[in-house]
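Q: I'm writing a short explainer about Zinc-binding dehydrogenase for a general audience and would like to include a description of its predicted shape. Could you first generate the structure from this sequence?
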Amino acid sequence: MRALTFDPDLTFTDVPDPVPAPSQALIRVAAFSLNFGEIAYRSANVPPGYVPGWDAAGVVVRAAADGSGPAAGTRVVTFGWSGAWAELRTVDTADMAAVPEAVDLGTAAALPVAGVTALQAVRRLGEVAGRRVLVTGASGGVGRYAVQLAARAGAHVVASAGSAARAEGLRELGAAEIVLGPENLDGRVYGVLDNVGGRQLAEAFYRLEDDGVVMAIGRAARETTVIDFELAGARSARGRIENFNVAAPFGADLAHLLGLLAAGDLDAQVGWRGPWEEAGKAADALLARQVAGKAVVDL
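A: Of course. Here's the predicted structure. Afterward I'll give you a sentence or two in plain language.
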């Protein structure tokens, strides 16, 4: 089958068809989405023929041998830590969900890592109704989902973006306030969903309320975070930073997000979409922070 691999740049490669384990289904991929992390932080030590990719949507070609999961012919969205950038992929049935007819497969492909990360991170903050929540990197894939899901949970959302241009559309998604960097935030916040790391994580921490919490989700800045815990006048009495990592299985969370998409209560915020022959352009645009939201690649 045909697949995209790093060699060292993105290139098409012929690789063997994947063989599913008993609890896995074989999927014919219709579209996949790209994530900043799988490009910026890819390993240089992978075996020949290794197929990257976390998020893909398509159609079940062969149902799981153990009887779990959807039947052949079902439209599904899938998650796995590899294998998405190919014509076929195998996926544990616990990490997929059936896609409603009202939802386009390319749109569904934008959900898994970014959407589930945002959903689980908002849950980790606990009760946010009526509380002020800051989302850094709000213009990115995770950020745009986080703004919507925190607002749906009743939070007063402050969206932080790198520029006015990248902040466009965030109010329509539910942001009550927009700032260009957490250093420009007035007042304090209960929670932070930080997708940037580095200096911005530190600036966000300094603005926590007592007992506030920062969810350290991403590291888009690609820089080390240095925090002065003794900084006068800018320290929460009992605020904390939690190292957030998304947790599998994804199936139930994907089904929940697909329901919101189908009902028109969630926007996948696809900022780039094109054929997989142009996937390299999408990857470059993501790294340059030129994509507002998600990049989707159609096979």
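A: For your explainer, you could say: The CA atoms of residues 166 and 225 lie 23 Å apart.
Q: Perfect, that's easy to follow.
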